[in-house]
Specification:
With 147 residues, this protein is mostly helical. Helix content is 86%, strand content 0%. The chain is elongated and about 70 Å long.
Amino acid sequence: MQHKRFSLVATQVGVVVLATLLIAAVAILPYLVRTYLLVARHDALYQPLLICLYATSGPGVAVLALVWALLRNIQKKAVFVRANVRILRGLAWCFVAVTLCFLGLGWFYHMSFVVAVAVFFFAMVLRVLRHVFEQACDLQQDNDYTI
């Protein structure tokens, strides 16, 4: 039991750390992109990459907020509930939005297609997980009505 609690708290700390890093990265994003492009020698990529990364920061914040909400529900022992199904649906849509951003960047930098495919794969895994949670909610509801 103690291990489960530690795992939940460690994950929550991870979410807070990622949120802090995301805020910091957005604040210095132009510098980070310029530094990357100096090393990678892709000067023409500055504006498209900057736009893509700023566009994905919104879904990134949403993902962190949704994961936090999911962790709070798990902490309350509310696992197979409709709210978690909605959270998983929202997470999947956030990853689809990131996929679209990187597909757009792919016209300027072909390696971003690889990122888009990887993120889309994760979105599909989340969709499957959402369906599993939805079935579990149905089974739990049936179980609750059984005498």
